[in-house]
Design a protein that fits this description.
- The chain has 282 residues and is α/β, with parallel strands linked by helices.
- It folds into two domains: 2-171, Rossmann fold (3-Layer(aba) Sandwich), CATH 3.40.50.720; 175-280, 6-phosphogluconate dehydrogenase C-terminal fold, CATH 1.10.3660.10.
- It has 13 helices and eight strands.
- The chain has helices at residues 10-21, 35-43, 53-58, 69-82, 97-102, 149-161, 172-200, 204-210, 213-219, 226-235, 237-259, 263-274, 276-280, and strands at residues 2-6, 27-31, 49-50, 62-65, 88-91, 112-117, 138-142, 165-169.
- It has an eight-stranded mixed β-sheet with strand order 3-2-1-4-5-6-7-8, with helices on both faces.
- α4 links the parallel β4 (62-65) and β5.
- The longest helix has 29 residues, at 172-200.
- The chain is globular, with a radius of gyration of 21 Å.
- 34% of the residues are buried.
């Protein structure tokens, strides 16, 4: 296959490395608006050539849209205009309801597969790309009922070839609600933990001296790119606001028990939280 990658950062670049390794693609074309990133992608061998969007799409069997969610929605009309009749376009965005709703009635909707690979790191850009990033991970395909069977089969085959399990959500809104809690809320928690510690502890050396592996793992996501996450949070604002409200209420309750030195209630809240282990590590 000839594959065009629109966006060659962490997700696009990592996917390119994996698909090249397993032989899924014969030629990899990149579309990248950042000249430095385009140069790096070629130097690192993530793609074979860099081309303008219409040219890359018109020669591709599959178009992988790996740009921030708000940019993906802006570019998709141009991609549809230049898409071959037999080609497939799949996006990698972490919110799905907006893009699915916007293009649900587009004449070429059947050639589009809305997907979300549940994989990533706190780094960004072509130099962050790593092979095997998607191995033993899950990818969600949303609203498969609007995609052609052949398009779904190609995307499922792509994911299976790199060791990724595919799950199907008929409701994009349900997907966005779930990721608000299990993905987006954890990033906000990490961002705000990092901000809080930096505000309270002005001496960075003390942070480094006292930082445990627990702190490092909890605050790791605070190193994620604001350029990536700001549009994600805004695309999922309503559902994320609801998740934040529940989270804030729990924090306020925990503070209340701390202030009251209520050992029993504190223990109870943490014991209830321990139940997550039955889901994560059954």
């Amino acid at each position: 296959m000839n594959i065009a990658f629109v966006g060659i950062g962490l997700i696009g670049g990592s996917l390119a490395l994996s698909l090249r390794r397993v032989g899924f693609a014969a030629h990899l074309t990149g579309v990248e608006s950042n000249p430095q990133h385009a140069h790096q992608a070629l130097q690192l061998g993530l793609v074979d050539t860099i081309q303008p969007l219409p040219t890359a799409v018109s020669g591709a069997d599959m178009v992988i849209l790996a740009v921030p969610v708000h940019i993906a929605r802006q570019l998709l009309p141009t991609i549809f205009d230049n898409l071959l009749p037999s080609a497939v376009v799949v996006d990698m965005g972490s919110t799905k309801d907006g893009i699915c709703t916007q293009f649900r009635n587009h004449p070429k909707r059947s050639q589009f597969v809305a997907s979300h690979p549940m994989a990533g790191t706190e780094y960004s850009g072509p130099q962050a790309a790593v092979d095997h990033l998607f191995e033993d991970k899950k990818a969600i395909v949303c609203e498969p009922q609007y995609s052609a069977n052949e398009a779904i089969e190609w995307v499922v085959s792509m994911y299976h070839n790199i060791g990724t399990q595919v799950l199907f959500y008929e409701s994009a809104a349900a997907h966005d609600k779930h990721v608000a809690y299990v993905s987006h809320l954890s990033h906000i928690s990490s961002f705000m933990l990092g901000k809080t510690v930096l505000e309270v502890e002005k001496d960075e050396q003390h942070i480094l001296e006292l930082a445990s592996t627990g702190f490092a793992s909890t605050v790791r996501l605070a190193k994620s790119s604001p350029d990536t996450w700001t549009p994600i949070f805004l695309q999922n604002a309503a559902l994320l606001s609801s998740a934040l409200q529940t989270y804030i209420e729990n924090l306020q309750q925990f503070k209340k028990y701390i202030d009251a030195a209520d050992t029993q209630k504190l223990h109870q809240m943490m014991s209830e939280a321990n139940q997550i282990g039955k889901i994560i590590d059954p």
